[in-house]
Amino acid sequence: VQLQASGGGSVQSGGSLRLSCTASGRTFRNNGMGWFRQAPGKERETVATISWNGGTTYYTDSVKGRFTISRDNAANTVNLRMNSLKPEDTAVYYCAAGIHAGASISPQLYRYWGRGTLVTVSS
User: What are the beta bridge partners of residue 79?
Assistant: First the structure.
């Protein structure tokens, strides 16, 4: 089972990026999925999560109105559209598959993790 995150890069403040996460080895159509990030010297933070059918989403307060999580179960992918990026969004972003079908918030409720993709936002 592998989760591969892609789409990271370097952008200026106010720019946009779209992260994608593709699963291989098994389907996660019945699992909640999430995006998390970890900045240097900080703990891993939940950014956004989505339930198995996309009906429920969660966003941490700092990204509400700027980030959008979505999923395509047929393609076994989950995406994170990031607009109006800020320097404080700089981090390694990870996607993960949850052990439940809902949009779980705690990283401890996620079993399968991708390697991460680096997002750097300069001012």
Answer: 20, 70
Q: Answer whether 32's CB lies under 8 Å from 51's CB.
A: yes
- Mean pLDDT rounded to a whole number for the chain: 96
| DSSP 8-state code for residue 53 | T
Q: In what order do the strands lie in the sheet with 67-72?
A: 2-6, 17-24, 77-82, 67-72
Spatial neighbors of 103 by CB under 8 A, at least 6 apart, are 32, 34, 49, 50, 51, 56, 57, 58
Q: Is the pLDDT of residue 1 over 90?
A: no
For the CA atoms of 117, 79, 63, 94, what is the dihedral angle to 10 degrees? -30
22-56, pLDDT tens digit by residue?
998 888 999 999 999 999 999 999 999 999 999 99
